[in-house]
Specification:
Layout: E1 2-13, E2 20-28, E3 32-41, E4 49-54, E5 57-63, E6 66-70, E7 75-77, E8 80-88, E9 94-104
Antiparallel strand pairs: 1-9, 2-8, 3-7, 3-9, 4-5, 4-8, 5-6
Amino acid sequence: MEFVGFREIVITQTSTDGPSSITIPLEVDSGHVLKILNVLETYFASYSSNTIKLDGYNIYKSSNSNISYSTNFPLFVSEGTHELSYSCWDTQNRSAKLICQEFKLTPP
């Protein structure tokens, strides 16, 4: 594998009307793999419950200002188009950031 660079993927939710969810496409180029190192939330609320899913599978959940579930990072994502969703259960603008490394697959 050849290191291509770091990627930060930001998901922002701006609803102030209560629970909401946003879904964005996550693109990984052909012949590449994405290594998710960590997830950071920019805002915690003591009453919130937030979930990040990749292709429908929970990879991160925070509840009451604590991380209540987290995939054992790093998590490798293969080439193609994937679905990344962020569900928020409070009325504050918030965002999450995935810290990633991208690699190009090279023959041995």
